[in-house]
Specification:
The protein is built from three helices and twelve strands, in the order βαββββαβαββββββ. By secondary structure, the protein is of the alpha+beta class. It has one domain. The strands form three sheets. It has a five-stranded mixed sheet with strand order 9-8-12-11-10. The longest helix is centred in the N-terminal third of the chain and has 11 residues. The radius of gyration is 18 Å and the shape is globular. This is NusG-like N-terminal domain-containing protein.
């Protein structure tokens, strides 16, 4: 599964899209925690997130993390899983005060930018997308691979974060062990590639 700065997903959200094609949510008054996108140098995402959590108070930054997913790889005839960054050069910040977060980041010397600050919009990630990611990822912010079978043409997910999401899954690629998942509904919707192993088909 290729890793690209921009995902092979599309956004049809009425609120538009953030950098990397992620669906944008509506801005809300300060006080409710939302997910915000941070732009930073590629390759330093994890270390910069750790620095932000060390330097900023929890009242401004509840969490900062790199969203990753497992990718199926084949080497020497053997398949194995490897976690990869879903959005290289980006990370997520969870905050209930976007303006305060933007001001705090501006005071730091770290090369981190809150996406949207140029227009002073501080647009959050769409709530529906944030909820899907939160449910799909584990405590290490990794979306693990799921396992499924296809019986009489119907997909049945047996384990992993995609259990119960069969209606959202399309374009299952058994060879590459990945599938397309609808993350948000609405006009066009927003989809992600997710790892899935389908060893049996009848």
């Amino acid at each position: 599964m290729p890793v690209a700065t921009a995902p092979s997903a599309r956004s049809g959200a009425r609120g538009g899209s953030l950098a990397a094609g992620l669906p944008m949510g509506r801005r809300t008054p300060r006080g409710r925690e939302r997910w915000y996108l941070l732009r930073m140098p590629e390759g330093r995402e994890a270390s910069l997130c750790a620095e932000l959590k060390r330097l900023l108070p929890e009242s401004i930054l509840s969490d900062a993390f790199v969203l990753r997913k497992e990718r199926w790889m084949k080497r020497g005839g053997t398949w194995f899983l490897e976690p990869v960054n879903m959005y290289r050069g980006y990370a997520f910040a969870i905050s209930s005060d976007a303006a305060g977060l933007a001001k705090s980041l501006a005071r730091l010397t770290l090369p981190v930018e809150l996406v949207g600050t140029e227009a002073r919009s501080w647009a959050p990630l769409a709530d529906e997308a944030a909820a899907w990611y939160a449910a799909a990822m584990d405590g290490s912010h990794v979306i693990r691979s799921s396992t499924a079978v296809i019986v009489d043409g119907a997909l049945h997910v047996q384990s992993g974060p995609l259990v119960g999401q069969e209606s959202r899954i399309s374009k299952v690629d058994r060879h590459s062990r990945r599938c397309q998942v609808r993350v948000t509904d609405g006009d066009g919707g927003f989809t992600e590639q997710a790892p899935i192993d389908v060893p049996f088909k009848s």
